[in-house]
# Entry
Amino acid sequence: MKDGMVRACLARVTSRIRHHFDENPSEGWAWDCAPNADRDADTIWYLKDYGPASLRLMFGWRYELQLRPENFGCYQSMNKSQFDAVKSGFARIDRYMQGGSIFMEKRNFSFGLPNDGHLTQRDLVWVAARFEDEFVKQAIEKIERFTRNQTMTAAIYELNRIATV
# Structure
C-alpha cells in the first residue's frame, strides 16, 4: 500500500477513536497527539493531574498499545511487582522495558483472520479499512480497560506519584 493511503486510513480510524474520547471522556483522563510521533495516528492518554509528559497509555508505531513514560529512567529502577496491577490490563505483553516502553502489546486485534492477534502493519491497515467500525470498537475497548477501571487508574496514578517523589 502506498504511504498516503496508509496514512489516510489510519488518520480516519484515529479521528473516530479520538472523537469517542472527546464525547465520552473518562474521569481524570485526557488524550493528546503523541509528541514526536505520527500526529495522525499516534495518541496518548494520560492522567490530567500529571500531564502529558507522565506515565501514559499510547497507541504508537501504528497501533501498538504501550504503557510509556516520558522519562523512562524514573521507572527502570522500580520493582517489577509495582507494575503488576497495570500489567493485567494488557491482553498480553510482547515487550517489557524496551524501546522506551514499560509494556507493549503489538497489534493484538481480532477479525477472524489467520494472523489474528499478530497483525502486520499492512494487515492492520487492511482491517482498519475493511472492518473500520470493529477496529475502532476494539481500539476503544483496549484504552477503556485502563481509563474506565478505577483499579487501573489508581495504579497508574500511584506509579506517577512514585516517579515524581
